[in-house]
Amino acid sequence: MVVIICVEDEQNICELEVYTLQSVGMEAEGCASGKELFALLEQHIPELIVLDIMLPGFDGYDLLAYIRPMNIPVIFLTAKSDLNDRVKGLKLGAEDYIVKPFEMVEVIARIEVVLRRYHKSQGVLHLLDIDVDLDAREVLQNGVRVDLTRKEFDLLVIFCQNPNTALFRETLFEKIW
């Protein structure tokens, strides 16, 4: 499963990021400072870090310099919208730079792009008691294999990738048929 660490000192925003990423099948953890990030990085290495710049103690730029040698992609998600800040973040090595206010749908899309670029995209989707292996095109429910037709599998993948989202019939026809 894809593991993402969200470093954000505003608790409500951090909780939103973590909850939304978990709802689309990613494993997400939140922390509020560079010190907490260091502790998490000692436990395990994530596939990606979503990083605020204005943090207590170490700022996001300092943290990026620490993270870069670990080859963990970083996306800045910050209120610093000045062109110089964006250019500085990208030149220091961030994979992307998103300015607050933001839409989580866009954040997820940008995360997926970076994960694909680093070949860390999800091979398995998890939703409730269902595991969908995208590479093997296999579905397990509570560990028991479920046989599906090609179209049923494709529909399940779309539903797993868009939990709690109403999808138009036309959209499903367009993507599946």
Q: How would you explain this protein's 3D organization?
A:
The chain is of the alpha/beta class and 177 residues long. The chain is 42% helix and 21% strand. It has helices spanning 11-23, 34-43, 60-67, 83-92, 104-117, 150-161, 169-176, and strands at residues 3-7, 27-31, 48-51, 74-78, 96-99, 124-127, 130-133, 138-141, 144-146. The chain has a 5-stranded parallel β-sheet, sandwiched between helices. It has a 4-stranded antiparallel β-sheet with strand order 6-7-8-9, with helices on one face. Helix 1 links the parallel strand 1 (3-7) and strand 2 (27-31).
Keywords:
single chain; 177 residues; five-stranded parallel β-sheet; four-stranded antiparallel β-sheet; 7 helices
- Gyration radius over CA: 18 Å
- In terms of DSSP E residues, the strand content is 15-25%
Element-by-element helix/strand order: EHEHEHEHEHEEEEHH
Q: Summarize model confidence as the mean pLDDT.
A: 90
Number of DSSP helices? 7
Span between termini:
29 Å
| Largest β-sheet summary | 5 strands, parallel
Number of strands: 9
Shape: elongated
Spans of at least 5 consecutive residues whose pLDDT stays below 50 are: none
| Share of helix, binned | 40-55%
Q: Which structural class do the helices and strands define?
A: alpha/beta
- The strand order across the widest sheet is 2-1-3-4-5
What is this structure, in a nutshell?
The chain has 177 residues and is of the alpha/beta class. The chain is built from seven helices and nine strands, in the order βαβαβαβαβαββββαα.
List the helices and strands and how they pair.
Blueprint: E1 3-7, H1 11-23, E2 27-31, H2 34-43, E3 48-51, H3 60-67, E4 74-78, H4 83-92, E5 96-99, H5 104-117, E6 124-127, E7 130-133, E8 138-141, E9 144-146, H6 150-161, H7 169-176
Parallel strand pairs: 1-2, 1-3, 3-4, 4-5
Antiparallel strand pairs: 6-7, 7-8, 8-9
